[in-house]
Amino acid sequence: MGVPDTAATGTVMRPATLRAYAGAAGFTDVEILPIDTPYWRFYRLTV
Q1: Residue-wise pLDDT tens digits, 1-47
Q2: How far apart are CA 9 and CA 13, in angstroms?
Q3: Cβ–Cβ under 8 Å, residues 44 and 34
Q4: What are all long-range contacts of 17-23, with beta carbons under 8 Å and residues at least 24 apart?
Q5: Which residue, 32, 29, 31, is CA-closest to 46?
Q6: Which H helix or E strand runs over 43?
Q7: pLDDT of residue 1
Q8: Contact status, residue 27 vs residue 46, Cβ threshold 8 Å
């Protein structure tokens, strides 16, 4: 249910997928932040 050229990632994104998207967008590093939460994962993207 999106534009024909979308990646159709869905609601859950694995770290490897985020790293691939971030790299394609020009980011050089993806770090998983140590924030304690049962449902969310937080990332820091750097250039």
Answers
A1: 567 888 888 888 999 999 999 999 999 999 999 999 999 999 999 99
A2: 7
A3: no
A4: 18/43
A5: 29
A6: strand 43-46
A7: 57
A8: yes
